[in-house]
Amino acid sequence: MSGDEGSKQLRGRRREREALDALAAEVEAGHSAVLVLRGDAGIGKSALLHHLETRVAHHRVARGAGVESEMELPFAGLHQLCAPFLDRLDRLPAPQRDALATAFGLSEGPPPDRFLVGLAVLGLLTDVAAEQPLFCLVDDTQWLDQVSAQTLALVARRMLAEPMALVFASREQRGNDEFAGLPELMVGGLDDTDARNLLNASAVGPMDAQIRDRILAEARGNPLALLELPHDRPDMGSEHALHTPGLGSVSCRIERSYVARVYTLPPATRRLLLVAAAEPVGDVALLRRAAERLDISPSAIDPAVAEGLLAVGALIRFRHPLLRSAVLRAADLAELRETHRVLAEVTDSDLDPDRRAWHLSRATVRPDEEIAAELEASAARAAARGATPAAAAFLARAAALTSHPQRKATRALAAAQAQLRTGATAAARELLALARAEALDDAQRARAELVHAQLTFASGRPGEAIPLLLATARRLLPLDTDLAHETFLDALSAALFAGRLTTGVDAREVAVAGLAAPAPAEGPTRAADALLVALATRFTDAYDDVVPCARRALDLFRRETDPDQILRWSWLASTLAAEVWDDESWATLAARHVQTARAVGALAELPLALNSRVVVHTCAGELDEAALLIAEITRLQEAVGHGFTPFGAMTLAAWQGRADEALPLIKEGVENAVRGGEGIGVAIARRAEAVLLNGLGRFEEAFDAARSASTHPNDLVAANAGLIELVEAGVRSGRTDAARTALERLVRTTAAAGTDWALGVQARSRALLGQGATAEEDYRQAIERLGRTRVATDLARAHLLYGEWLRREGRRGDAREQLHSAHALFTRFGAEAFADRAVRELRASGESVARRDGGATATLTAQEAQIAQLARDGLTNSEIGAQLFLSPHTVEWHLRKVYAKLGITSRRSLHTEL
Known about the structure:
It is globular, with a radius of gyration of 32 Å. The protein has a five-stranded parallel beta sheet with strand order 2-3-4-1-5, sandwiched between helices. It starts with 13 loop residues before the first helix and ends with a helix. Helix content is 66%, strand content 4%. It has 914 residues and is mainly alpha-helical.
């Protein structure tokens, strides 16, 4: 925070003060509030935070601030905000308490789920706010460490009904910003009158009119510039000028002014000021120990305090972050390194080993294996806490301080892979270049090629990645059989993404090479090896041979516990499960994929995991749950700077049945997939289009979309799903020959799989082409089998098709029973087109039925409906909050709204309303 900037009375700022006063009133009325103050350095954001702090001083206030030099230390900013409340940890549910304790290094455990950490922070702050309104003010969020920023942004988006505010101050958004999309207030410069009044009030003695006008022009209404530029000393000697930023931006001029003031201080004061600037926590005791080590009296800092450059209280606070950066930039590099060395010496290696390693790393420019090893250990600790970005930063610095060529390359490659996991492809490329600059041995050269290939795939070029990954896998075979097998799997994954758009090496070529590879050394079969065999068999042999291999692989993978293995292969494993019609494994593996990606902070992987989970939710009829994940996917893809075809969103839109929304999304999805070389995206989009059009009864168009979706058998899952739509669209559009051909292809997979899902879909599709008692028996079998699965949408369609058939057979009473079942299911799902189709059939059967809009339940939002359903099922508010990442207080607030909309007074009545 800017110490003195906030202490002066605000001039002007009526709009900003009114907004903050309204925010305070909202919280005092028992509601939550979030606001991001954005503006240039020195524009007055900290002063506005101070204004709010003064306004709510009779309530509870928690402060935090990002520090540029702390951006690599995981959870540093979050710990700063939560530290005063950690005595309340025991009040949290055990999973949340353990997650937060692990994140803060208070206890050991597996990497905590990032969302669970966020929920724990929300619970902790909510517990404080329950006693009195709580205002959390966080300055300089552009300098928060990544995991702290992500967690606070999550908390901000989950607040609703707590008497609590989160107010952030940040420089203007550039690039990725976790706080994008939250309510903002742009803070601009003062108007001419207020700027002149502030300058006059802060001037010491008379000021020449020409100088005053120059300062006003250069400050451009920036309050800090108006306060500091009068201290600028154009007569400063060239020796000092060499160390100052050049003229130009207002912030550079302010830094130049600060440097001028610093150089008027005694040498001992300047030295302690540098120590304070290099120590981001503001620990007064640490500053005293450093002063003793430098043989300087702690009182030497007093002239800087008297000059108003910093304040010393419980913590050391600089007048403004620009002052800290000015002190650091103006320092002699040798003196700065010596300062970090002293700080490392006085930092307790047991209590804070990571900060000590961080200081040591900046105390030298020469390779130092001991320091590099400490950084590597810090990386391991960060990874264990789920802070992958921090682990990557520690490893990168360790590589830079390593002299041994092979060890340097190993650390650089590990750092590159960690950066790749966070979605930081540019940083990963730089580290890969650092590794390749060394004299690599054969194994390291192969690993470098692997990182290069993975970067190509992660950058949205799967077609280019396939031959690179295949060549790397072959190179690795004599060096590391396990890694070679994993690289064959990577190549198969790229081939699956490229699908029908592959122009060179395809899935079959990769599969043949993978099956021909030597088996791993003796020992238990790894899940990855079994997965390779199953997928390679799918692309080379008959489907009958795939099923037993797939079941073995899925059984092994469901028992896998290594987070790295779960992250790398969950998409392939869940795809394989759906390909062999194993709905239980499909749902289980997709859910675990999301959980693991969140736990280790794998931002590059999480959008893919969430998309898979959206499709599972949608096929289960859980459209509300799927909808809640779509916004999260969008935010994540913005954060990592790369997206892929939104197959989850397209599938959801198709089932919702709103043509005006779904068709443009599907069209855009196809175009994006073609542009990115993602053939699987084209197949999924066309299948989604077929579902939508079948639901709308536009069977001619559905036929074309389904035929396109099912054309390429190697489009796993999508091709089978396309065949289902093709049978129905073909029968309904009079193209029975094409429908029979599609059924024959479908039977080859469903008969071999033999699951209830497979045989239920097969029976339903046979019934469409059947007649008389045989067709009826198929429909009944379909309903029986699909009723035992998670795929509720297929069950609802079986009821619908059976009802349609019964009506055409003249059995209107029997038809109405099935059609009512279908209508109830589709309405509960939110599948509007299929629900309307059921209504039309009911009317045709002679029943007078209004298009059901869900009655009062239709007025519930997606989140209200989801909470109401969980409450109906017997979950407590705490259990609902834990599942949906909401505070119990917010859950109760939502339930009160649900009760009002449904006209009930308690959750006991939910059973009759939902």
